[in-house]
Amino acid sequence: MKWCTPVTTTNTTLSWIPIKFQHDTLHSAIKTSPHPSGIILNLNLNLNLKLKRNRTAMGSEGSDAIRKPRILCLHGFRTSGEIFRTQTTKKWPESVLEKVELIFLDAPFPCNGKSEVEGIFDPPYYEWFQFNKDFLEYENFDKCLEYIEECMIKHAPIDGLLGFSQGAILSAALPGLQAKGIALTKVPKIKFVMIVSGAKFRNEALAEKAYSVPLQCPSLHFLGDEDFLKPHGIELLKSVVDPLIIHHPRGHTIPRLDEKGLETMMNFLDRIQKIVSNKEDVNEDVKEDVVTVG
């Protein structure tokens, strides 16, 4: 016997994939029901059923069913997730913030020296890893990668990364390290990155692993005219395919968005929303569900 009947619920279309049932299995799966069809398929059985969820927009109600892009936010050197949250939410308009879900982390290591934001933002302060003055040698880098992966699992599903300064350097390198199987091997592929005051790792061995293949996922880069990292951010762009760029007149900071910058940002957010929405259409195993057929 085969079931191919489409079942429609609010905002979701469930499409049956034809499956042959053994008689005993079917007997345990089918129960009588007051529903006119007289049949309920209890999918909380080990039937290996596959359902295809097709999210459809049905007015405002359908729009609510569309999952926003969920973004892991990596703050700057010797700051914190709360500081990054404050900087971002105070400077970016609601029209931007309402389109995404932002997850702000604290880096795994307490600040190991003076913070540049001391006196501006309250402690505690954190850092992702330690490095020498030439930015060629790094300490606790592997532990940093493990920590980020653990956070991606904890806050799953994570679609992309938003990074500032040290967090931006990490965010720009992680897709390449993931593609090489060096980092984030237990989580889905990073779909996009947003880089504010970014740069490349200068260690030759690490750079070869991170940037040998150009970054191909959608990326948005912020370059400040007065930012000391601007030349390094421009150098990073050479390792990126089709980057979107927002220029601003400020220095090493989270910038406010002028009219042109806001337009670029909204175009980028529309693009990543389409990517995330398409992801919702993949087949998934249904373990606990009851569907009425009729």
UniProtKB/TrEMBL annotation:
Signal sequence interval, chain numbering: none
Listed SUPFAM superfamilies: alpha/beta-Hydrolases (SSF53474)
InterPro entries documented for this protein: AB_hydrolase_fold, FSH-like_dom
Boundaries of every Serine hydrolase domain copy: 67-259
Protein known as: Serine hydrolase domain-containing protein
